[in-house]
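This is your field. Pick holes in the following sequence-structure pair:
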Amino acid sequence: METQYDGYPLYYHDVGFLSTNGAPGKVTPATQGVTYTCSVNPSTEQSGCSFQLGTNGGQHDLVANVSGYAIEAHLYQETLQKMQTVAKAYAGYFTTQYLANTTRDVDIDYFANIDTAWDGCGPDGQGGNAYMDTSSTIPNSGNGSNGGPGFAFPGESPDGDNVTYYGADGLNDTQPATWDDNAFINSLGLSESDVTSAWGFLMGVANGPNAPSFDNAIDRDPLSCNSNLQSPPYTAFIFAWAPNAVLLSDSIVGTY
């Protein structure tokens, strides 16, 4: 079944267990008028399943329900809360970097250091790296950045398959949160578990010029070649995959 959680699609199964309670083999739930009915209301993000035991349902009185929605909703809640914590820490890092710079400038993107392999276009046609924070210990997530894997971060499949990835072509300039020898998490005082989703996979960090969010909004970055994205306020994203290729996203706006 499908419903929503916090505006995101949520896919799940509900399972019901019904005991025959010693009834003869010919006495089945169907012959007793037993039904199992489920309902989903995406607008209210609610779902539920229940048994109707029928007119003679007393012979099937041992009943248990397992709510897949309740299980998945808890994992969504845990992951989104962790993402918000990471995003809040990253937003604070931006402001701290800005205030610590004696030549602070609102045109500088304090989310990350330069991209060593890509200078972008930059405001007024100048090199974009001139507007990155050269004192930042967090590298740029651009595909050619310091120590980055150099590929579009796909995220890992929550089904546990380490070979199959979701969205391999859709998350440009996004790196795992532990890239470049943990420079990101160490700078924010986080641990690897802090940036691991409830499904057990690393979150992605996007502070590069071509990084899209789940709804295809593009990161605002002075390295961008889109002139509409080169000016502040600059942004970054935290990503996590939920099952069935659902991409969770938390946007961060740099505050001066």
